[in-house]
Amino acid sequence: MQVFVLLFNADTDNPGIHTISVGNQNLVLMFAQQDDADRYAMMLEAQDFAVPTVERIEQEEIEEFCQDAGYEAYLIPENFMPQNEFERLLLAPPESNRDEMDWSPEEKRKQEEAEMSNKELDRIRRQLEGLL
Predict the structure, then answer these.
(1) pLDDT class for 22, splitting at 50, 70, 90?
(2) How far is CA 39 from the centre of its chain?
(3) Of 33, 56, 84, 121, which residue is the least packed, with the fewest Cβ within 10 Å?
(4) 87: Cβ–Cβ under 8 A, 6 or more apart, which residues?
């Protein structure tokens, strides 16, 4: 099944996908209808977020990406009517944007490796200082 998602910098080497944080979960919204995705994108723009591009992608591809990136895919079905407080959060974009864009699992892995390298350097530095 094809779904619609919101992408940022879609035509660049570093595209990103729109996520929302709910508690400790990062959700990628997949819309069954393009009109719903377009409406959500316009609401983001109205709240001074970066303007996303609505893209049609296979649902399986998004779910696989989410699994690899540690996100959770959430399908907004046709004729979506929220049934609880959590689902009501999905109707409107968040009020604030994240300053840090960490949508690339590869960049996150590189950052973690750099932190490990810094810890290793600090350990070696302490050993050398102990020799003096």
Answers:
(1) confident
(2) 19
(3) 84
(4) 80
